[in-house]
Amino acid sequence: MDEKGFLIGILQKPKRIFTKSTNPNGPKRGAGQDRSREWITYITTEQEKLRKVEKKRDKQRKKEDLALIVAQRKSDRERDR
Fold first, then answer.
1. 3, 43 in Cβ contact below 8 A?
2. Contacts of 40 (CB under 8 A, 6+ apart)
3. At CB < 8 A and 24+ separation, what contacts does 64-71 make?
4. Which letter does DSSP use for residue 15 in this model?
């Protein structure tokens, strides 16, 4: 989802009332022009950083689990001799 889509989802409300004095060109259709998107960019950037950290942590856990399995099998083989 892009920044605009995220913003539309956040700003969506079931009821909005616009008078003609609010907008002399008639009713607004769709999303109005948003101001700053810096906060949305910040959120998506931090979310991406978190995903990278989680992937790295998951890889490390898999390596540790694999090492544990290998060590367990090795000890089982030695015990069976």
1. no
2. 3, 6, 7
3. none
4. -
Contact 11, 31 (CB under 8 A): yes
Q: Enumerate residues 6+ apart whose C-beta is below 8 A from 11.
A: 31, 34
With CA atoms as reference, report the closest residue to 8 among 24, 22, 25, 29: 29
Q: What is the DSSP letter of 32?
A: P
CB 6 within 8 A of CB 40: yes
Task: Decide if 35 contacts 12 (C-beta within 8 A).
Answer: no
Token reading at 35: 């101001």
Place of tokens 């700003």: 11
pLDDT per residue as tens digits for the range 31-72: 555 566 677 778 888 889 999 999 999 999 999 999 999 999
